[in-house]
Design a protein that fits this description.
By secondary structure, this protein is α/β, with parallel strands linked by helices. The protein has helices spanning 31-40, 56-65, 78-89, 101-109, 137-148, 172-183, 196-205, 217-226, 241-248, 263-268, and strands at 12-15, 22-23, 26-27, 44-49, 75-77, 94-98, 113-114, 126-129, 152-155, 161-164, 167-170, 188-189, 210-214, 230-234, 258-260. Strand 4 (44-49), helix 2 (56-65) and strand 5 (75-77) form a beta-alpha-beta unit. The model has no long low-confidence stretch (mean pLDDT 95).
Length: 272
């Protein structure tokens, strides 16, 4: 099996995970084989995800679990990007984190004191909003109070939904919208559609013609555009063909250079 003529134009590929490589941790049919084909053809491969639910090491283990070889250097996450930003700009401050234990570890490892579970949580100097399935009214109350009192509001992503096997679940953007509405503030975002995840991946891959593959126009394709990279859209996650066609008619919408049904059909050149 050879690469499609389209993909053969590139020397390296940055792949989104959710909705592109897997859904809810279950491999999208054909994606592990497509990644192996990319590598066997000599293309370098990296992964970049807005999902901050787990650590980089966890994602590496999940990739191995579906038959995809990967190292920590191959995976760039919004949680890791948040840790880097906080370590560079806000070490020693207090923080309240809406997110998983993995995200709280990222914040602590950046040199901040995590105030979750203390009486001073609503007076934290930094509020971080990230992906979690354990969002409560108390989280919303404490986060919004802290921001009203002057805390910096940061988030890992604005993705409104997260693809899962039974449909689209609320994403980080849905939680962030609640915090922004209650606090009256607008968050600074480190993940896609900001270009930093892809720029970090490029630093690791090295120079070469690069294709980004993702399932969302408003995050993957928009971030690739901001980073000056070509992007292909796959319809196996958070975007329908109708949405892709509607975006193609809008002058202000980020536009992929290719649309395919999934990663396998993109890489192998099957029907879209």
């Amino acid at each position: 099996m050879s690469l499609s003529p389209f993909v053969s134009r590139y020397e390296q590929v940055i792949l989104d995970l959710d909705g592109c490589v897997w859904t809810g941790g279950q491999a999208i049919p054909g994606s592990p084989e497509a990644i192996e084909l990319l590598r066997s053809a000599g293309l370098r491969v990296a992964f970049a995800t807005n999902n901050s639910r787990a650590t980089t090491e966890d994602y590496v283990a999940q990739l191995w679990g579906i038959g995809v070889k990967a190292s920590v250097a191959d995976v760039v996450t919004s949680g890791g990007a948040m840790q880097h930003l906080l370590a560079e700009t806000r070490p020693g401050r207090t923080a309240f984190v809406v997110g998983t234990e993995a995200m709280r570890r990222h914040v602590a490892n950046a040199g901040l004191k995590v105030m979750n579970g203390t009486d001073l949580a609503s007076r934290a100097q930094v509020v971080v909003v990230a992906a979690t399935e354990q969002f409560t009214y108390d989280d919303l109350r404490l986060a919004s109070l802290a921001v009203q009192r002057g805390a910096d509001l940061l988030a890992t992503a604005r993705d409104p939904t997260h693809p899962m096997p039974d449909g689209l679940w609320p994403g980080t953007g849905a939680l962030l919208a609640a915090v922004e509405t209650a606090s009256g503030a607008k968050a600074a975002v480190v993940g896609k559609p900001e270009p930093q995840l892809f720029l970090t991946a490029l630093d690791r891959l090295g120079e070469g013609s690069t294709l980004v593959v993702g399932d969302r126009l408003d995050s993957d394709v928009a971030a690739a555009t901001a980073a000056g990279l070509d992007a292909a859209l796959v319809l196996s996650g958070g975007t329908t063909r109708e949405e892709a066609e509607a975006a193609a008619r809008r002058a202000d919408a980020p536009r992929p250079v290719k649309v395919a049904a999934d990663l396998a059909s993109l890489v192998k050149g099957g029907l879209d």
